[in-house]
C-alpha cells in the first residue's frame, strides 16, 4: 500500500512538472500543487484513455501509455486551472 502511494506521488510529480514545462506562461504553483495537478491529471488521462480505447490498468499499474496519458491529463488540468484561476479579480 505504501509503495502504491509513493508511486502515485512520484508519477504525479513527473506528470505535473512536464505539464508545467509544456504549458506556456508563468504558473505560480508550489511543488505540492504540481504534484496535485499531476495526480488529478493522471485520473483525467486514465478516464479519457478508458473512454477512447475501453482499456483499463489490468496489464499493470505503471505503463508508458499510462505515463503519457498522465502527462496529457495534467496538461488539460493545468490549462483549466490557469484559465479559471486567472479570472479572479481583487475588488477594493
Summarize the structure.
By secondary structure, this protein is mainly alpha-helical.
Can you describe what's shown?
The chain has 92 residues and is mainly α. It has one domain. It has helices at residues 2-22, 31-53, 64-85. The longest helix is centred in the middle third of the chain and has 23 residues, at 31-53. The chain is globular. The N and C termini lie far apart (49 Å). One of its GO terms (cellular component) is plasma membrane. Belongs to the UPF0410 family. Pfam families: Transgly_assoc. This is Putative membrane protein YeaQ/YmgE (Transglycosylase-associated protein family).
Looking at this protein, list some descriptive labels:
92 residues
Strand fraction band?
A: under 5%
Quantity of strands, as a count:
0
Question: Oligomeric status of the shown chains?
Answer: single chain
Q: What is the residue-averaged pLDDT?
A: 81
Largest sheet: none
Order of helices and strands: HHH
Number of helices: 3
Model regions low in confidence, pLDDT < 50 over at least 5 residues: none
Helical content stands at: over 70%
Radius of gyration: 14 Å
Number of domains: 1
> Which structural class matches the secondary elements?
mainly alpha
Please tell me what the overall shape is.
globular
Distance between the termini: 49 Å
Protein name: Putative membrane protein YeaQ/YmgE (Transglycosylase-associated protein family)
Subcellular location: Cell membrane
InterPro entries: Transgly_assoc
Family: Belongs to the UPF0410 family.
